Amino acid sequence: MEFDIAKTLQDVSGQVIGELGDAGNAFAGELGKAFAEKQQSLAELSSAYLNGEIDEAELKQELAREQKVIEAQLITLEIAAKAAIQKAVNGVMDGLVSTLKGAL
What we know:
By secondary structure, the protein is mainly alpha-helical. The protein has helices spanning 5-20, 22-26, 28-50, 56-103. It has a domain at 5-73.
């Protein structure tokens, strides 16, 4: 059976992002980038499993490691989003205070 890791990652990522709706669209690019960076190692793991070089337990263990790396990459996105939200809220509050002072 022929296995195309790039197509599989694209299909699965698209499905997951679709299920997340607008929230998924917000980080689709970063998720795609993270998987693209891991594509080679995921392809090697997939090939090793399909060729009988590793068993399912080893596959799951290695995929769990890859998952942690991808999650760590996406944490930076979470931090950036939180900073942007804080900046936006601070701007609104500062604007409100300025407006209120001007109304006095």
